[in-house]
Amino acid sequence: MSSWLLWTAIGFLAGSLPFSVWIGRWVLRKDIRAYGDHNPGATNVLRAGGKLWFVVALLLDASKGAAPVGLAHWTLGIRGMEIVPIALAPVLGHAFSPFLGFKGGKAVATMGGIWIGLTLIYMPVVLLALLVFWFYTVTVSGWAIVLTGISGLLYLVLSGADQSLIAVMVGCLLLSLYKQRADLALPLRLRLLERRNA
User: Fold this and answer.
1) In which domain, by residue range, is 174 found?
2) pLDDT of 58-77, one tens digit each?
3) From residue 66, how far is each of 13, 26, 86, 144, 161 by CA, in Å?
4) What is the domain count for the chain?
5) Rg of the Cα trace of the chain?
6) pTM given for the model
7) CB within 8 A of 62, min separation 6: which ones?
8) Residue 196 pLDDT more than 90?
């Protein structure tokens, strides 16, 4: 089996591990999918169990993206377009986990993790800054996440980034459009205008 194919499978398996659901079941003794938006992600761990377990779930969800991608990219030296399926595999695993009947969360933390695996610090810092900006600019969280993806893609294109990174960002953006579709059905509103109209 080609190394990129093997690591794509490993990445998907790692991403599919539903840590947030397991924390809810085994630690909190709750089904976190009964809370909030009913997704099996870290945000509902926050709602069900508080900040400590939210941080644990967030770090686990990020690490299951960062670890396989980082090992493939930096340790094995897999580069170019071969890294694209490896990078997207943990995100798809989280979003469509076989442990949860091929359902899953919105994969935001896992997306952050794969960018740690690909670029170490610089893209996670860029994306975090963009995410904070959009969360304070628009009123709907799904719009903020999608606009972060669009802005991140624009940044990569304008900075002359490698085509493989651009392809990974396109994949993340397409998945976000699908996973955030309920929020995207709501009007895009700016917080500044909402305050003025309040």
Assistant:
1) 3-197
2) 999 999 999 999 999 999 99
3) 13, 24, 11, 23, 20
4) 1
5) 17
6) 0.95
7) 109, 110, 112, 113, 116
8) no
